[in-house]
Predict the 3D structure of the following.
Amino acid sequence: MADIKKVATRESYGNALAELGDKYENLYVFDADLAAATKTGIFKKKFPDRFFDCGIAESNMMGVAAGMAATGKIPFVSTFAMFAAGRAFEQVRNSIGYPHLNVKIGATHAGISVGEDGATHQCNEDIALMRTIPGMTVIIPADDVEAKAAVEAAINYEGPVYMRFGRLAVPVFNDPETYKFEIGKGIKLRDGKDITIVATGLMVYEAIEAAKTLEQDGIQATVINIHTIKPIDKDIIIQAAKNTDLVLTVEEHSVIGGLGEAVCDVLCENYPTKVVKIGVNDEFGHSGPAVDLLKQFGLSAENIVKTAKEAVKAK
Amino acid sequence: MDATLKKQLEVTACKIRLGIIEGVFNAKSGHPGGSLSIADVLTYLYFAKMNVYPDKPDEPHRDRLVLSKGHTAPALYSTLAEKGFFPKQELKSLRHIGAMLQGHPCINIPGVDMSSGSLGQGISVACGMALSGKISNDTYKVYTILGDGEIEEGQVWEAAMFAAHYKLDNLVAIVDNNGLQIDGKVEDVMSVYPIADKFEAFGWHAISADAHDFDALEKAFNEAETIANQPVVIILKSVKGKGVSFMENNVSWHGSAPNKEQYDQAVAELTAHLKELEG
């Protein structure tokens, strides 16, 4: 697998916008002085008349997008996750969420894989923040294929959508020929009886790799990709929990309020099952190369294998 | 301004003020002071200026108004009811559980173009609507009403930069300069002065006018229409609580409702004024 192609989902996002710009003439893109980094610059180059830089003013940008949506256009707004979900949280809640406007938020540079920029820019809280807003759809694509499909699905969905993209190039494991994306539908990637690994975003690939290693060690793992944290696919989670009676969640986000808690919510109410969470614990990130940080914070196939083994042993 | 129109607008404004008092009294809460201070400009906009259609509230080419100072929803609701967007009876259930009229404007209410209430946000939305109109070569205008205290919010100035940068000359921001905010006088709490100079420095065309004089309002809004390539702000010198003697210039009426006795007095004053105008 050494030669697997790697693409950052922010790149997929920018490419998808540029590719879909022809098909969807009502699509407009806004950025807050980060077009080169969020990759909306790819769209800007192709459609300069449909791209608007808002300058370093994210709060206003969210409101402008709300106004565009209120007049029937489909605005995509982009900045880093820290500023989209963090700084502009209240604008997203009150100007986009409450009136349920058709704004698509493309947040990039999420999680600790931002790397060297360090804690101020490593947003590990955005999923938690966004999923508390009533009516907000929250999507975290795992790779290039899924990210592109998610962008088009968001265009065709009426209502606010928060999409989380990463800075780090990650393996492209989905097959573009057969892959199908449906908002709110999880994807079972492997079937096993001993443990269910539920992952999202760039941790999905790590979960698949971990499951392969576990298999060699005699542990059969089910792997589920939850690309839509909200609305979450309850059925696929409950069914997998019934089949394995043990769940391990893996996310590049705080263990507070993210995928892990969303899965716990589903299972506590429907089929109480032991859930072990891998994510960023209650701490800030710090500077370093993204790959090293992911390893250090336990966001790796190795740590999934180790944690899964311990959990299965304790079953 | 034509004398007949002026008289009609004065009558309408008085009825809108009565609706504000009715709504806030029945809600037993709300913001009468800042509602009364914008009653005249709302009257002017909805009855003499804006292209709006009570039977087709979502008509795509209509003019829009975003009440950025959303806490003065009673004024907007009373205006929309007077215009025929919904029955005036609705004002009696303002803020009640299960009622259509929420404490702050909600986009689902006929005639309300945007949910608002968290200060500083409405002007950004108005910018987005104006930009959208420019992109589509639509001729609609976008109006947004801000409080003078509201412009302490940083987002207002982000929006001010944006509007000038994109030359949104289809956008008119109105600052209701009644000089009072919850904690006291604007100049004591956090001075926003000089307002016109600030907007001009941000690239806007600024006009100042008396908020309670329809001739002045007409002149100001007509001037606004002659301005090309830049947004316009109209700073209206207003009286908080205008029209109800004991509420005028009294900050304690920013966010409290009249009791029965006070309600009766307010209604009596406004009704007497209405009779005088109609008589």
In short: The first helix of chain A runs from residue 9 to 20. The first strand of chain A starts at residue 6 and ends at 8.
